[in-house]
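step: validate -> pass
step: tokenize input -> pass
step: predict -> running
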Amino acid sequence: MLHKKTALLRAAAPVAVLALAVTACGGHKKTASATDDAPRTEKVPKAEKKSSPPADSGELKPGQGGTGKFKEENGTITYEVAAQKLQVSTEAETRKLVSDPKRAKGLVAATAWVKYTHKGGGVVKQSPDVADESEIYADGQRGGLLIGAAEDGRGCEDTFDIENWKAGQSHTICQTYMIPKGAKSLEVHWAGEGRSGSPLIWKFDDAG
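step: predict -> pass
step: emit ->
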């Protein structure tokens, strides 16, 4: 995943300018900024972060939680992860989100609200990365990450504002992905980095 480099790109961009992670659905992610000459974000090497596969695997109902371990910067944390809801924007709404509407032709934005509960393993001092492992799939294909689009949604928290996250505390962090218009089967996946085990999967066939 993109982790801190993605966060730095988002922080450096003006509020009204979003960077679209352009990818063919199911392909590897590459981030492109709003301007052609802006710096590009590279994939973080696997050696930088490691995570264990979730303790719970398989399909879950919206709002139902599964647990897994994830290595944050200052220690390995056990999280309970629960995708709460998934909302798909209209084409008109999507065009307002992206810096270059032409690049969003045939696509719409889908935002997932995911609740993370710290179950143990130490204090996460600041800017947790666990939410970067949440991905949205449409009709079996992974969408493209839309950087900076989800932090202002109602009920969504910005990871930059999360500090000293202790056991027993929960935060809802959103992710927005670009998916093909008219997709029928929508899913949120979380498996931790490396995907050495089966992911947690929440199906949202009636997302709206």
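step: describe -> The chain has a mean pLDDT of 77.
step: cleanup -> pass
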